[in-house]
Design a protein that fits this description.
The protein is an alpha+beta fold. The protein has two domains: 131 residues, Ubiquitin-like (UB roll) (Roll), CATH 3.10.20.740; 61 residues, no CATH class. Helix content is 20%, strand content 16%. The strands form three sheets. It has a five-stranded mixed sheet with strand order 2-1-5-3-4, sandwiched between helices. A two-stranded antiparallel sheet has the order 6-7. Strands 8-9 form a two-stranded antiparallel sheet. A hairpin with a 6-residue loop joins strand 8 and strand 9. The N and C termini lie far apart (74 Å).
Length: 206
């Protein structure tokens, strides 16, 4: 029996979600792999956006992975972690659920709780993710926050309210990667980290 050299068999590469095998594609991230097989909302995210490069600032998309199924589990941000053959992914373990809830609780402690009067009420990703991870209240005591930041209404078409900023960097990345304007940037370190417009001026002047 002769084998036609033109006929090649390709074996699918597999990765695993909760020990169940799924076909992987080269160049995928863990997040895109999970979404392709389980749906867009299978893993919650805050800083991720479909038209922006993965950034990994919020860590809400964290999952546990093992390289071969028997190794030690490692917590990674799924948005910028490349998928690998035979990788085992556990997206909703108890420790991951606790991590996501803690992250969102910390975000909410530094966010205005004016949802009923906010223009984004009902169309707010932070609201949606908070509900998804089970936030019903805030356990942390009141401390230093950024709630007194002034709203910038100087621009005729855009408003900047940094009291509601969650440091996802989306606006900075969109300004750089999509518009190519490089007008917005992050300045300061740690607690003093904030968005600056132009040479740290108003929205209209920038």
């Amino acid at each position: 029996m002769t084998v036609n050299p033109q006929v090649q068999t390709t074996q699918k590469k597999l990765a695993y979600i909760n020990n169940l095998p799924f076909e992987m594609r080269e160049g995928e991230t863990v997040l895109s792999f999970l979404r392709r097989h389980k749906g867009q909302k299978y893993v919650p995210t805050l800083c991720d956006a479909p038209n922006l490069e993965p950034f990994g600032s919020c860590r809400v998309c964290s999952v546990e992975v093992s390289r071969d199924g028997n190794g030690q589990l490692k917590t990674v941000a799924s948005c910028h972690t490349p998928i690998a053959e035979n990788m085992h992914i556990f997206p909703d373990t108890e420790s991951i659920q606790r991590l996501r809830k803690n992250i969102i609780e910390l975000v909410v402690t530094d966010h205005p709780l004016d949802c009923l009067t906010c223009e984004a009420n009902g169309d707010c990703e932070l609201q949606d993710v908070a509900a998804e991870v089970g936030i019903t209240g805030v356990r942390y005591p009141e401390g230093k926050n950024h709630l007194d930041r002034e709203r910038d209404d100087s621009h005729p078409y855009m408003v900047s309210d940094l009291s509601k900023c969650i440091n996802c960097y989306r606006c900075v990345r969109a300004c750089d990667e999509v518009q190519g304007e490089f007008v917005l940037t992050m300045v300061g370190r740690g607690f003093e980290n904030r968005i600056a417009k132009g040479m740290d001026t108003t929205f209209d002047e920038s």
